[in-house]
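REQUEST ID: PR-0412
SUBMITTED BY: lab tech R.K.
PRIORITY: routine
TASK: structure prediction, single protein chain
INPUT:
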Amino acid sequence: MIPAVVMPRTVTLPLAYGWSVTVWDELTHGQFNDMRSRIYSESADGTLQRNVERFFDGLAVAYLVDWTLTDAQGQAIAIRGLTPDALQDAFRNLRQFAALEVQRAIEAHHDRNLTAIEDLKKTASIDAPSVTISPYAGSPA
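STATUS: complete
OUTPUT:
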């Protein structure tokens, strides 16, 4: 049986330049919805508008827990425990190549999670007992 609840675990992903990033192993439904809420907003007429500033960084900000990135003086850039808005600001202040390194690692991690879930679905459906569906009363047999 596949558990329906996400265990709050983190994993550390290696990056180039000796850096690493600590991310959530898997996002909960709530974390994923929170991400969508940050990247979309409702306009006055009720339609959803994409916040382009946040859209491209949304997945990275949702997964980010910590990293080993440093500032110009070699001091660690502390992000553990920051709010999503503060994480977004820290992420936006990175050099472009550093942000892309973090973003690509997180997107690859997310893609691996999606593939693993699809694989679980296939395995679960193979192992599931076959159910015979009987016709309902009144159906032409």
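NOTES: The chain has a mean pLDDT of 87.
REVIEWED BY: pending
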